[in-house]
Design goal:
This protein is mostly helical and 199 residues long. The protein is 58% helix and 10% strand. It has 8 helices and 4 strands. A two-stranded antiparallel ribbon has the order 1-2. Strands 3-4 form a two-stranded parallel sheet. The longest helix is centred in the N-terminal third of the chain and has 32 residues. The radius of gyration is 16 Å and the shape is globular. The two termini are 26 Å apart.
Length: 199
């Protein structure tokens, strides 16, 4: 990550924080009242092939000790009513601003992968994670809705894993590499604007 990109993340993050804190407090209170604790969902993600961090989101599903892998149709029944609303407008991702300020991720970059997929596709992610992961990115804008449709049709964890591995990882990786080769502030601003427009 260049010094300029990191400076943008910190300055923009600290500027947004006073605006987002009251919104996040209300969302957290709503989850606590309607769905109970915990308010946050913490997931191990990879910043590089070897370095992990804890990614924070608002909890949108009922807790399950056996939870693993990406979300597909097999997890649909666990999504709470509050969670559906938060996911629709991507409000569940607001706590990630703290990950940005801390330096775990950037505002723009490839979505941080789960450890299991990095271990399954080490060569792919060695290339993808040359860019610091982000909240949004080119693959998110171009492929996210298509990915949702693919995974929504999966009725078991095994089916979800196979569909994500075979149909999503390679396509998203190509887009993430295109982003890395063309990364600049103007592209980041365009991707952020597209993300907000889609929310």
């Amino acid at each position: 990550m260049t010094a300029g990109k990191r400076a943008f993340d910190v300055i923009f993050g600290l500027t947004l924080l006073p605006v987002l804190l009251p919104v996040m407090a209300l969302i957290g209170l709503a989850i606590l009242i309607l769905d109970g604790a915990p308010v946050l969902f913490v997931s191990e993600r990879m910043q590089s092939r070897w370095r992990s961090f804890d990614l924070h989101k608002f909890r949108t599903m009922r807790c399950c000790d056996c939870d693993a892998g990406v979300s597909g149709g097999d997890k649909e029944a666990r999504i709470t009513r509050t969670g559906r609303f938060l996911r629709r407008f991507r409000l569940d991702e607001l706590p990630q601003i703290f990950n940005v300020i801390r330096g775990d991720i950037s505002f723009v970059g490839p979505r941080p992968p789960l450890r299991s997929y990095v271990e399954q596709f080490p060569e792919v992610y060695a290339e993808v994670l040359r860019s610091r992961p982000g909240i949004t990115g080119l693959a998110t804008i171009v492929y996210h809705r298509h990915e949702e449709r693919i995974l929504a049709a999966c009725l078991s964890a095994e089916e979800t894993h196979k569909a994500y591995s075979d149909r999503c990882v390679p396509r998203k990786a190509k887009l993430d590499i295109i982003y890395r080769k063309n990364a600049c502030l103007s592209l980041d601003l365009w991707l952020l604007a597209r993300t907000v427009a889609r929310a």
